[in-house]
Design goal:
Largest sheet: none
Low-confidence stretches: 1-16, 31-41
Radius of gyration: 23 Å
Number of domains: 2
Order of helices and strands: HHHHHHHHH
Number of helices: 9
Pfam families: DUF6698
Strand content: under 5%
Number of strands: 0
Length: 252
């Protein structure tokens, strides 16, 4: 019996570990939402999805998140259960936050048919994708003003709604994207970044993330994520585009 329980436990664990990750990019194509199609843009779930994407997770696959979350809830597993891997705990925590943000979401999911659960996930995904698209489109244009030194112009000019000519292909954007610890002013380094001889790894922070674009090799955490560009992007998305240029007012 002990051997049988062990085998069953291993099979269950293996099945659980084999689930797809929900914390990856969700579907981009416009979802089919069945009977909700006529009022999709007004459905509250779309608006909840926009808020969830901005404040919790911008790139998750909601269908997978909900499917995996329901499976764990049905097993009465706690988010801190030791049988879960680190990524499963993180994913389950994101799912729990989704339930917390949307009124009666847990009861609605548990009482709905599989088809309705799919529809719910698609509506939330639509909100996430829409918010991300709106935000990136707005920032893509506004950031030209933020990176242009006051009283000057960029040379060569960068069109607001065109992606080409940015990145390492432009002196100003290249300097901001240059990995901390590398010297963009060094022509050899710059050339290798432009032609791809230097491959930038995901754990190499770009210099624009640091306060005043200054990197301290002795203390790499000093000033990280305190850049004025990040503050401007936050204001643009979470308050209003016009708030970026407004001076903060004193409050009592």
């Amino acid at each position: 019996m002990a051997s049988q329980r062990s085998t069953t436990s291993q099979a269950t664990t293996g099945e659980k570990r084999g689930r797809s990750s929900a914390l990856e990019m969700g579907p981009r194509k416009k979802p089919f939402v069945g009977c909700y199609n006529a009022r999709t843009s007004q459905d509250p779930l779309v608006h909840h999805g926009r808020h969830f994407g901005r404040s919790v997770h911008a790139f998750c696959n909601v269908q997978t998140l909900v499917t995996n979350g329901i499976a764990l809830m049905s097993e009465d597993i706690d988010v801190n259960d030791e049988s879960l891997t680190a990524i499963e705990r993180k994913e389950y925590g994101v799912f729990k936050e989704l339930l917390r943000m949307i009124p009666s979401m847990e009861a609605r999911l548990m009482e709905s048919s599989e088809e309705m659960v799919t529809t719910i996930a698609e509506l939330i995904q639509k909100g996430i994708n829409g918010a991300r698209a709106d935000d990136t489109k707005g920032v893509k244009s506004a950031i030209i003003d933020w990176i242009t030194p006051k009283g000057q112009s960029l040379n060569p000019h960068i069109p607001r709604n065109v992606k080409s000519g940015r990145g390492f292909n432009h002196g100003r954007t290249g300097a901001l994207l240059c990995p901390a610890g590398l010297d963009w002013a060094n022509m050899e380094t710059r050339t290798k970044l432009v032609n791809g001889q230097i491959q930038v790894a995901g754990d190499q922070w770009p210099i624009f993330l640091y306060a005043n674009y200054t990197y301290d090799a002795e203390d790499p955490w000093n000033g990280l994520l305190r850049s004025g560009l990040l503050v401007s992007a936050f204001k643009h998305i979470f308050t209003s585009p016009s708030s970026v240029d407004q001076e903060p007012k004193a409050t009592r």
